Amino acid sequence: MVSPAVNTKKMTMIEGVRNAMDEMLKENEDVIILGEDIGVNGGVFRATEGLHEKYGEDRIIDTPISESGIIGNSIGLAANGFRPIAEIQFLGFIYPGFNQLMTHATRLRQRSLGRFTVPVVVRAPYGAGVKAPEIHSDSVESLFTHMPGIKVVVPSNAYDAKGLLIASIDDPDPVMFLEPLRCYRSNRTEVPDGKYTIDIGRASVLKQGDDISVFTWGAMVMDTMKAIETLEEEQNMSCEVIDLRTLYPLDKETISASVQKTGRAAIIHEAPATGGVSNDVISLINDTSFLYLRAPIQRVTGFDTPVPVYSLEQEYLPSAAKIQAAIVNAVNF
């Protein structure tokens, strides 16, 4: 919650991201940004617009088209005292840099027995539904939740984006900061002036409810909220909605407390079902709250296929009807 005494401004999520980086660049000279077209051009989504003019080319660094180079150089800089923010234009482009993350960023603290840390943030927009070409719409967040040593953060609005990004830049270890494309300019939220942080690993209860706990993240937060609003108008049920915000580490306490209250759960994400983060949420629920369950846990996900061409994107993404059907199935079990 934002205190009434704090000055705020309504921002889109991309503005919240930019504002967070601006705050940290101003506060700490060791913060730098690396990425393709992020300088004079301001980035493909204008996340760094105006920062090159304000902080100069030594801190807002245009790189060649080399994701492995961007991430590899950022790791080296981080190990030597800088706090780099590496921008990957789309999450689907990160695969050439995957080795740098898995082999070095996540292991250097352990490998050096704590002598070196890697305070690097890797920012990447992701997700389908914006009519982008192939590889631009991948939702592969679970690739990174399976990397011990790196945190995975996914905001869904400007307020969370700013607070979580500042916390990520302050963190002594690597953070994957995934930005849902559909959330960039889809809504505005009140964002406080100045620096504030949101704890990494803390979920947000968006709506209290009694009949079922609905867990989601990223762009599916707004889709889920809309589907539930319509459902509750039509049927006599009460849904609790939780935006996980951090996919690793998961907020064990909030997840288990909610399920123990409602006795039912549904998990909504646009990534493929197999290997999705929903499996980790289900395991957590089974470990902590199995005897509280009154119905099988429901999942609504994307398909186990690559994201299709844009004419079929809406068929791929979880729809309001599918979300509503899963909730009804659980509540009426």
From TrEMBL:
Cofactor(s), names only, from the UniProt record: thiamine diphosphate
Source species, domain of life: Bacteria
Assigned keywords, A-Z: Oxidoreductase, Pyruvate, Thiamine pyrophosphate
Residues in Transketolase-like pyrimidine-binding domain copies: 11-186
GO molecular-function terms, A-Z: oxidoreductase activity
InterPro entries in alphabetical order: THDP-binding, Transketo_C/PFOR_II, Transketolase-like_Pyr-bd, Transketolase_C
UniProt cross-references to Pfam families, sorted A to Z: Transket_pyr, Transketolase_C
Name recorded for this polypeptide: Pyruvate dehydrogenase E1 component beta subunit
Annotated source species: Natribacillus halophilus
Classification lineage: Bacteria, Bacillati, Bacillota, Bacilli, Bacillales
